[in-house]
Amino acid sequence: MSMRKILPVTFVLSTLALAPAGSGQPEGNRPLTITPYSAAAYVQDRAAVELISAVAEFPIGLLRWSDTPRPPVLELERSVKAAVNLFYTEWSAGGPAKLGARDVLPRVRDWYRSLQSPRLAHLTVADGLEVRLPSKPVDIVGDAPAEVPFIFANERSTRVTVVLRPAGSTPLQTVELGPGWTLGRWVRIPPGPAPDGPVRLVAEVGGARRESELPVRRWPRATARIRVLDEKGAPTAARIYLTGPDGRAYAPSGAVHRSTCGDYRQPYAGDYYFYMGGAFEVDVPAGEVEIEAVKGFEYAPARRRARVEAGKRNRPWDMAARGWYSGDVHIHPNLFAQSWITPRDVLEIARAEDLNVSNLLVCNDPSGFMNDLSRFEGKPHALSGGRYLLYWNEEMRNLRVYGHVGFLNLKRCVVPSWFGWPLSPVPYDYPSNYNQAVAAKAQGGVVTYVHPGLPSEYPVDIALGAADTIDVMCQGDEERNTADWYRLLNCGFRCPISAGTDCFLNIPYHLIAGAGRLYVQTGGALGYDRWIDGYLKGRSFASNAPLLTFTVEGHAPGEEVRAPAGPLRVRIRAEAVSHVPMAALEVVVNGRTVLRREATDSHRIAVAEEVTLDRTSWVALRARGGGHRLVPNDAALYAHTSPVYFQLGDDRPASKEDALYFVDKINALIARVGSDGVFEKPEQREEVIRLFRKGQERSRRRGARRRAPDPPP
Predict the structure, then answer these.
(1) What is the CATH number of the domain that holds 407?
(2) Which domain holds residue 615?
(3) Model confidence over 153-172: pLDDT tens digits?
(4) I want to staple 602 with a disulfide (CB 3.0 to 4.6 A). Which of 122, 344, 368, 581 is the partner?
(5) Are 588 and 595 in contact (CB under 8 A)?
(6) What is the pTM of this model?
(7) DSSP 3-state assignment of 160?
(8) Backbone dihedral region for residue 409 (phi beyond 0: left; psi -120 to 50: alpha; all else: beta)
(9) Are residues 537 and 677 in the same domain?
């Protein structure tokens, strides 16, 4: 059945008007990446913290220009995070620090050298003083200063001080460089007195002096006044991408300028964007401005030029009209003891992303500080209402062994909320996650393992009934997670699909909330209790773009059908619609693709066919596609429903192969408890292992059973 058509988001753009002088390009002091926070937490050598933080932060600004090659920047960011992980491993062991600045200096130099951009300037101190200016002129807008990225390198064996100043003026930048150091700095360049001439710069190191002329390109400054309207003609919030005629990304004064990240090898990372309500102004160079608005999956993304009349295009869909509401089960407004993202900020982002349910997880920092604990209330936040709900819940995190768990629909925080963290009040890996999961479920909570991987504790807790599911869609590998989820289903565990982004809203270079989301059918109007009920019952699908409709013999995801034993012919009706191109639509039975429809129209694929079920089966729908810039959190397009369950006679899913797979993974978990677990008393370790053996035996027995359980009373 086709989804209801409604009008698209429309831009109304005013004529560009000259504005008074001013920068229009504010840069806050907050870090752009997670690295300064993680380095401060895990790296004990302060010089190493400075070097690592600087090399992670500096390149992100280069992505604001469309002519910066992105792969070197994205690879640098991934490599820096990998280097921090070495310090993290040392820190988590709890011993004295051995790694320091000397261990990262060569890599820091190589990271800076890997960067490519026509906007880069280089200043190298060796026997003399070498200055290499950008290959493109510096853009100066109005009479505001421009920011120029400089890489300062000291090849001497002694510390040096570099001073950069305009000719005849006070210093712009003073940089202290240790022996062998390389640092990136953004230097604010004044426009200079000449209307069209270059800016003269003087670099000084000790007695050495070098004068250069910095070519500039001057632009009149203008103000673009923009409105974004919804299908009813009312102003609406959206995620906005805006590029000026100079090829640079711009944002309104006071807005947080964010960038899609590539830490998980997303192929289209590096786009700058911001969130904004329906009407705003932004200072840009005078000329043609390109602007794009994105609002969830149900509205058509729209791209316009500032001097082009807005028009109707593409077709959006209204899922709420059909009783479906989207949610993200894993959002962090603030991490690393920050608090500047407020509930109102979260609501604005939820509206811009058209994300109906935001599960905001309180969690610990390495110091033990509980981020956003003051906002936990055990109920939807007071700002919730209409189509958007905010609920502060909890992520319980074990550091070394068991994995991280999301607790939803909590009325009280489960404590301890973290354990197994060295240098904290809870340094031991006791008890296991099981105890906290049981406490969460006792108060009506939902338990999902977030960014799941193996070996971890989720096979044990699902087997013992303490956990409900895993986040199949997350920042991890969806292919791997999906394969493991299929194995859980083949063992007879009714695990609904789940999706959580693990985005950090206080980190501008990070994942986007709701870019992978879970649609839940509530059976009526939106309410948090209804959404959670539909989530648990599997009336759902996860997606990073496509919208799915799926029934088997008229039964929707989450439903169970009982029929006599023997082959059963069933009718599949399915449709996928997407603003991002799709490649194929697949029907999956017990983990195997039994029907595949290649896309002839990449934005809509429909299936109306029959398949035969030879035995008790679960049946689900999956959409596939390639990478796309509007799938910013993932490497490829993905959507998947929860299953429809068919119970044929007494037969039941009893995959010995899949059961033994989890038996082996639990063996690996037990080995990790022995090698990596930290316990105050030996009997605590043995208690945890006994619990894991109990869960392992449950999995082993599931692989041996051949008859279905009795129907519930």
Answers:
(1) 3.20.20.140
(2) 545-653
(3) 999 999 999 999 887 778 88
(4) 581
(5) no
(6) 0.92
(7) strand
(8) left
(9) yes
